[in-house]
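QA checklist item 7 of 12: single-chain prediction sanity check.
[x] sequence parsed
[x] length recorded as 246
[x] structure emitted
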Amino acid sequence: MTTTTGAFSAFALEPFPTITLGDDLAGAITDVLAAQDTKLQDGDVIVVASKVVSTAEGRFVDFADVSPSPAALDLSARTGKPAEIAELVLRESTAHFVAGENGPIIARHRLGYQLTSAGIDRAGTDGAWLLPKDPDSSARALRDAITAFSGATVAVVIADSDGRADRRGATVISIGAAGISPLRITEHAEPNGRTKVQEETLTDLVAAAAGLILGQRGRGAPVAVLRGLSYQASDEGVAAMLHRVP
């Protein structure tokens, strides 16, 4: 059982360099830490936007290499999405539905996540970014590199913006994690003498908290540190709490 958190603090790592295809993301993070003389502490949780992970891992798809299928053309016509994006959604997902009259497209990603547009992030008119190939593995690699640099026992959560089928706007969820249990399990004694056990998606709560300062328009801060959280250390990853794992 994990105790709850009474208070925590959060701050962005900034200014953060622009990450381009193939860059060393862990190196960029540790460079900013060094430049700011920021000392990580045991228990800190580093939250990283999925887009910079995808960028560093070269997950870019050029629209010139995408030939939309008839199904993609139909989905494009229904939602107004570019046909190439619709085709990538179909390729990256095992099932989908259109939530509103014209969208959004809610898709079951091949990795098991249910995400708007299968987590695909449009990159201007030329292409799009796919999710990291294995977000939990990416989180572990970042955690190991940051721990080796700082000497502190830290956790990493990879966060992705996501819409909901029942409302407008976007929130932030976790798609990868290392060093932190994805679920928080609490117990509560009821008047009848029974104990109620509650599971909460802790890494989603962490991602949403970081989302208050991550990726706001014009900030250019894709990495944040949350300090003071109570959690159990684990390398299970986000995949461990999915209903459907490939």
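[x] summary fact logged: The mean pLDDT is 92.
[ ] second reviewer sign-off
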